[in-house]
Amino acid sequence: MGLDINTKKAKKNAFRISKERGIGASRIRVPGGYLKAEILGMVQEIAEKYGNGIVHLTTRQGFEIEGIRLEDMDAINQMLQPIIELLDINQPEKGAGYSSSGTRNITACIGNNVCPFANYNTTAFAKRVEKEIFPNDLHFKVAFTGCPNDCGKVRLHDFGIIGMTMPRYDPGRCVSCQACVKGCKGLSVDALRMENDKIIRDEEKCVGCGVCITKCPTRAFTRSRQKYYRLTLMGRTGKKNPRLGEDFLIWADEDSIVKIILNTYRFVKEYMNPGAPGGKEHIGYIIDRVGFEEYKKWALEGVELLPETKVKECVYWSGIHFDR
Q1: Using CA atoms, how far apart are residues 92 and 96, in angstroms rounded to an integer?
Q2: 192-195 and 168-169 as β-strands: parallel, antiparallel, unpaired?
Q3: Is 238 exposed, middle or buried (0-12, 13-18, 19+ CB in 10 A)?
Q4: Composition of the chain by helix, strand, coil, percent to 5
Q5: Is the pLDDT reported for residue 286 higher than 50?
Q6: At 160, which helix (H) or strand (E)?
Q7: Which of 91, 105, 255, 305 lies at a CB distance of 3.0 to 4.6 Å from 309, suitable for a disulfide?
Q8: Torsion-angle region of residue 229: left (phi > 0), alpha (psi -120 to 50) or beta?
Q9: Which is nearest to 143 in space by CA: 224, 237, 80?
Q10: In order of start, what are the domains of the chain with their CATH numbers?
């Protein structure tokens, strides 16, 4: 089999091509960056048997096993099979490794599995979206973070999902200590004030971070049962126009976000430039070309938003322009 054919197959099969002829790296998806420790031993075994013994922990919370000979792809895919199954990755053909590489591994902060500030289980949501969108060769990047601290740097992604909570206030438990007010002023956006021995929350200013909840010593503030999210759109790095993602939905629910992401795949398939290099075009550049209003129609088709969800009428991006 010729090198050109192998190279195309390798890229499709989620193998990275290196600068050394015939050598690459085996890329392993870990949705949400959360895995059983036994997988580490399996990665080590592949690295020592077929690689150069080096494993790179990627910026997308996956593994790259270095020093892989492309001619060993089939054997490596067989060794990847138990890893793929343990991580519950969608796979059209067992034993064939990963069937696409365009949609990148979904990243997430540790979430409320560990962090007291996180408003939701980032791992569970990341795995749900992974199941919905992979395998796919369109260039999408999705990231999750548990609260507005944004430890996951989600505003650098096509879709950033930021956990929110609607603080529930019980004045009967409040002792007017103002720990929540001080916490919100020092650690968040100064959305609380004391009036007539009661705490008043500025609903327009509140970002749903939950600092008031973690600071309250009497549980006068508690998290809402409903999980809420802020959805940011079209953050990116790159050569032309790096920029941070902007808010699209605030106080959104999980189902709406999943539907919007799936609708965006439909939008991209409709409007992607067929002559784009490698048959791929970044979503943000497609929206720039087609217009946000058209994208918004596609994104919200069939979506049933919560009554409290706020939708940005139009989104304007800035960023640095190196292409002007």
Answers
A1: 9
A2: unpaired
A3: exposed
A4: 35, 20, 45
A5: yes
A6: strand 159-164
A7: 305
A8: beta
A9: 237
A10: 3-86 (3.90.480.20), 107-164+227-311 (3.30.413.10), 168-222 (3.30.70.20)
Taking residues 267-290, what's their average pLDDT? Answer: 87
Element (H, E) at 169: strand 168-169
State the DSSP code for 151.
T
Q: Which of these, 85, 125, 79, lies nearest to 106 by C-alpha position?
A: 125
The amino acid present at 82, given as its one-letter code, is P
9 vs 112: CA distance, rounded Å: 39
Q: What is the pLDDT of residues 52-102, one digit of tens each?
A: 999 999 999 999 999 999 999 999 999 999 999 999 999 999 999 999 988
Cβ–Cβ contacts within 10 Å for residue 324, how many?
5
- Dihedral of CA atoms 225, 255, 136, 80 in degrees, nearest 10, equals 30
